[in-house]
Design goal:
The complex is a heterodimer.
Chain A lengths: L1 H25 L5 E2 H10 L6 H14 L2 E6 L6 E6 L1 H35 L1
Antiparallel strand pairs in A: 1-3, 2-3
Chain B lengths: L1 H11 L4 H23 L6 H11 L2 H9 L8 H32 L4 H33 L30 H20 L5 E6 L1 E7 L6 H25 L4 H22 L9 H7 L8 H37 L2
Antiparallel strand pairs in B: 1-2
Helix pairs in contact in B: 1-2, 1-4, 2-3, 5-6, 5-7, 7-8, 8-9, 9-11
Classes of the chains: A mainly alpha, B mainly alpha.
Chain lengths: 120, 333
């Protein structure tokens, strides 16, 4: 059983890597800073480590998917991130792709379940 | 708060200068936010700071995340070539060290222990040096981004129709043979460059007493250039074979050109009057191998005088056959 858990952990890591990007992009039609994103996402049940999120935000910014701006008016200077024009497009396309993946994967998983039931 | 500074420094010092300040500021904001959330308005103490930093994870890992993907000295695009060159270089280095040891032992067997120590020293210093320089030679262009061009990219677009046809067995060039050729030429260059004085008839009386050289030692320095040129062209030829992988008219033509240049260089060198040791016969007599006028003397003298001619013929036949063979193989479909 612990063996299975080990495998699961590794596979989940791979699975999360891509989905976190979608989750992050989904929240950035309004500007957010890193930690507000962490809490926002965790309220919605998506748990992201800050140590993963912050470098990810920078990478997305470098790729031009996110824009950023420092806000120094508050007591604590914060870097806000927002979807760029390209980012909005990318996100919309990504959502379509995601939905199709979910649909087809559900189909695959459930079909397999039916099969094994039939054979039993 | 001191610990936060240490943490931020540990992360950012491993990152590119240009990003350090920005990331440091963002990280500080994050840590303070996390601390606020944790204590909820109460006084912050050291254990809270520690807990938050632990949650963020080791600074090395965090820095790795920030740095992104490119974390290698030699990338996957050129790794195969790197390994190939490294193998060749290491084999050459090891062979030269080994041959040097064997020659030393034959020359002076009494001091075998000294030679053995030389051998060990040679292995310990020579192999890592060769390894280091080869790696260096690949790493520098890699860092400069020279291998990111389209030609090197693993993901460049390809079509199934681009696949080369499987060449006829006779057209194929065996990689092992080409590599062995390169190694062979390189070892000869090294030996001829550094121990030409052993290239001759070895005299032994109980122990090694000297060499009667085939070559003229006075003029050897100039000719060495030609020798390196000739063998260097041999290496180029083998490299071309490796790159092409099969015989084509293009490759055969290149072989023709390279062999022609080698041949001219050899002709130029060997036919010059001062290439061979002019006193060779005399030295043989002086060393007591021969007596003037004996039958053996006459035979060897004749062989010596005609050697230039025959060596030329042999080389000519070899190089021409090399080219003809190439064209014949290239014709096979």
């Amino acid at each position: 059983m612990s063996d299975a858990n080990e495998h699961l952990e590794k596979l989940m890591q791979e699975l999360r890597r891509g989905t976190i990007t979608i989750a992050v992009l989904s929240q950035l039609s309004e500007p957010q800073y890193g930690y507000s994103l962490v809490t926002l996402l965790s309220d919605k049940g998506v748990h992201v480590e800050p140590g993963t999120l912050y470098p990810l935000l920078r990478r997305l910014e470098k790729q031009g998917i996110l824009d950023s701006k420092w806000d120094t008016n508050e007591a604590r200077p914060r870097k806000y991130y927002l979807l760029s024009e390209t980012g909005k497009e990318v996100f919309d396309l990504l959502v379509v792709e995601w939905k199709s993946i979910v649909k087809s994967l559900n189909g695959v998983i459930e079909a397999k379940g039916d099969d094994s039931n039939g054979n039993d | 708060m001191e610990m936060i500074n240490r943490y931020i420094y540990a992360v950012t010092q491993k990152l590119p200068q240009a990003q350090q300040k920005d990331i440091a500021e963002e990280l500080r904001g994050l840590i303070e936010d996390m601390l606020d959330e944790r204590v909820g308005g109460a006084e912050i103490n050291d254990s809270d700071v520690e807990a938050v930093l632990l949650e963020l994870g080791s600074p090395r890992k965090l820095a790795e995340q920030y740095r992104g993907t490119k974390r290698y000295l030699i990338g996957p695009e050129i790794f195969d070539s790197y390994i190939l060159v490294l193998k060749i270089v290491l084999i050459i280095t090891a062979s030269v060290i080994g041959i040097h040891f064997v020659i030393q032992v034959i020359l002076n067997p009494v001091a075998i222990l000294d030679h053995f120590i030389d051998l060990i020293v040679g292995i310990v210093t020579g192999i890592p040096t060769a390894f280091g320089w080869t790696t260096f030679g690949f790493a520098i262009p890699e860092m400069a981004g020279a291998f990111n061009s389209k030609g090197f990219s693993l993901e460049s677009e390809w079509r199934p129709t681009d696949l080369p046809p499987v060449p006829d067995e006779k057209r194929q060039i065996k990689r092992g043979e080409a590599i062995a050729g390169i190694i062979f030429y390189a070892i000869f260059i090294v030996i001829l460059a550094f121990s030409s004085e052993y290239f001759g008839v070895w005299r032994f009386s109980d122990e090694f007493t000297g060499v009667i050289p085939f070559l003229n030692e006075q003029t050897y320095g100039t000719y060495l250039l030609f020798i390196i040129l000739i063998f260097g062209f041999g290496i180029i030829k083998e490299c071309l074979k490796l790159v092409f992988g099969k015989w084509t008219y293009k490759l055969a033509t290149y072989t023709l050109i390279v062999n022609l240049i080698s041949l001219i260089a050899i002709l130029f060198m060997i036919s010059g009057p001062e290439f061979w040791n002019p006193n060779f016969m005399m030295e043989l007599v002086e060393a007591g191998f021969l007596t003037t006028g004996s039958e053996l003397y006459n035979i060897i003298s004749k062989v010596w005088e005609q050697s230039t001619f025959w060596i030329l013929i042999l080389l000519l036949v070899g190089l021409i056959w090399d080219v003809i063979d190439g064209f014949i193989r290239a014709r096979k479909k």
